[in-house]
Write a structure and sequence with these properties.
572 residues, TIM Barrel, 9-stranded mixed sheet, 19 helices, 33% helix
């Protein structure tokens, strides 16, 4: 009888191919899966998985651990949610290549776009690199609780080549375009998984300037894509607003055509064109029929902002009466907020200063889109539970109810995208499309306003188990979040439970799978705070055949490594 490192016995195996679930054993040795089926040999360790789900590890293709990975060995919250591989360097932002004079500019850009405290980045980043190759070497010397891949970011390339002219939105010269293309290709040859760029008005520095990549012309994007394509490897990632679908699709198609490389682009339902996502999906399908591999990255729930008195945003953040007590220690501030005279002063000031509170896309006082974030959180809430609807039933103003909730320590969740119809049907439609992939979790980013690193848990819990109508097959969801995301970024060695593939997997008690409300943790460098979200139900998570988490608790093992370039499927 053969002896394995680990044998997981009698679990309900969903193997990532989309095939029907089955009861089977899974054996692991030397970091790979050795058998799936009836395993006769024993293991140094045996795990009883009767009644539990056994699936591959999740592959999250859209995160922003660019900074955190330089100071932290645990890429949480993603690692708490069954994720065994993450890809950072998305949206055209990152910290390499760079010259010392522009390090702060890249920090300002990341702080503005991804809501990561600049003080934390300033203290945490060691800046022992200038080239992207040196950045990869630094990451390659570190250990993590999951595998990390990264992409070369367009904004950093522009700043490296153009300096202040990139920040000022100047058009690149032909020589500058060639240099950016050369650097991008060199980064991909050195192990970057691809190239990313941003063309959205939402991406701005802390000073309010648009991200440097926004002003790049189509000829610059095409030149970089062509250089990446010449390497014969790498992927392309784009975020855009689709304000002009025809123009954006022309650019995307051109990038793919000249490079021959696959491209993903962010997609969500928005308020200015609620059915526009359908047009984009149709156009992607047309491109695919022409042999142009484009896919949309889509969220698995509404895209929203978490608001609270200790977070980046809340309805009273510019209120002068609130600002007079905002700096008090939490206990004293809570006591003051409970006083009737404080409440009266804040509400009166809110009325006078209402125009000034409407920042961030006029979202922080959109009470009809705002919900109390409960425990467990409801990410497809009943519209009648909005702050506006609750206040109307109680015969008072929504702003007063919001005050009472926040003063009592509540968090509020305002739905930004994918909620135009007050349901997640657009999300279901996008998830079910053959032209999409689950993504956009932004793990590691937006630490004071968004907590979506838990997307993979929502995928199983909400779409595979709990939604009253319109659920999606569990086998389909696992394939999409494990195998399809892996192959989309060239990681063909993972995402399947089959002999020879990476021993990245989860054992999950599906009946007990449950998200908790996000919590504020003050554990960033320089004492910075961030939102983190835990989940119940993850019994065992393995990376390279090593258990990293047991019942949600760290095992102390750090088998994760930097991924350099595409990874081939096992032979045979």
């Amino acid at each position: 009888m053969s002896l394995h490192d680990v044998v997981i016995r009698g679990g309900t195996v969903v193997d990532g191919t989309g095939a029907p679930r089955r009861t089977a054993d899974v054996a692991l040795s030397d970091g790979v899966i050795t058998e799936v089926g009836r395993v006769s040999g024993s293991g140094h360790r045996e795990i009883d998985a009767d009644g539990a789900l056994v699936i591959p590890g999740f592959v999250d293709m859209h995160t922003h651990y660019d900074g955190q990975a330089t100071w932290d060995t645990r890429l949480q919250p993603s690692a708490w949610h069954g994720v065994t591989t993450v890809v950072s360097g998305n949206c055209g932002v990152g910290f390499a290549p760079v010259v010392p004079a522009y390090q702060q500019k890249l920090i300002d850009l990341m702080e503005g776009i991804e809501d990561i405290p600049g003080t934390a980045l300033h203290e945490g980043l060691p800046w022992t690199w200038e080239t992207f190759e040196e950045y990869l070497d630094f990451l390659g010397g570190r250990r993590f609780d999951l595998d990390l891949g990264t992409q070369v970011p367009h904004a950093a390339l522009r700043v490296r080549v153009m300096g202040d002219r990139a920040i000022a939105g100047t058009t690149a010269t032909d020589a500058e375009k060639r240099e950016m293309a050369r650097l991008a290709a060199a980064a991909v040859r050195a192990g970057a998984l691809g190239f990313s760029t941003s063309r959205t008005l939402n991406h701005k520095t802390v000073a309010g300037a648009l991200t440097p990549s926004y002003d790049a012309g189509s000829d610059e994007l095409v030149a970089i894509a062509e250089a990446v394509g010449a390497t014969g490897r790498g992927v392309l990632q784009v975020v855009t607003d689709f304000l002009d679908i025809d123009a954006d699709m022309t650019i995307l198609r051109s990038m793919v055509r000249v490079s021959g490389r696959p491209l993903t682009v962010s997609l969500a339902q928005n308020h200015y064109d609620p059915a526009g996502y359908r047009t984009v999906l149709r156009r992607i399908g047309e491109a695919d029929a022409e042999g142009l591999p484009i896919r949309a990255q889509v969220a698995v729930r509404g895209i929203g902002l978490v608001m609270g008195l200790d977070l980046t945003l809340h309805p009273f953040m510019t209120n002068p009466a609130w600002q007079r007590i905002a700096g008090f220690p939490p206990a004293e501030r809570t006591a003051r907020l409970a006083r009737p005279e404080t409440k009266a002063a804040v509400l009166a000031a809110q009325t006078r200063e209402k125009a000034e509170t409407r920042i961030g896309g006029r979202l922080i006082d959109k009470f009809h889109l705002m919900y109390e974030l409960t425990d467990p959180p409801q990410y497809e809430p009943d519209p009648q539970d909005s702050v506006a609807a609750r206040a109307e039933r109680e015969g008072r103003e929504p702003v007063e109810l919001a005050y009472d909730l926040l003063a009592a320590g509540a968090m509020l969740y305002v739905m930004v995208l994918n909620w135009e119809n007050r349901s997640l049907e657009p999300v279901r439609e996008m998830l079910a499309s053959p032209w999409t992939l689950p993504g956009l979790s932004d793990g590691g980013a937006h630490v004071g306003s968004i907590c979506d690193g838990s997307f993979p848990t929502t995928l199983l819990q909400h779409w595979g188990r709990d939604r009253p109508a319109g659920r999606l097959e569990l086998e389909y969801l696992v394939r999409r979040q494990c195998r399809d995301t892996a192959t989309a970024i060239g990681l063909d060695d993972r995402g399947l439970l089959a002999p020879g593939y990476r021993a990245d997997l989860n054992v999950i008690d599906l009946d007990s799978l449950r998200l908790h409300r996000p919590e504020v943790h003050r554990d960033l460098p320089a004492g910075g705070s961030r939102l983190l979200q835990r989940a119940d139900g993850y019994r065992h998570t393995f990376v390279r055949g090593v258990e990293t988490y047991a019942d949600g608790q760290e095992t102390g093992e750090l088998p994760g490594r930097l991924i350099r370039g595409p990874q081939p499927a096992p032979a045979g």
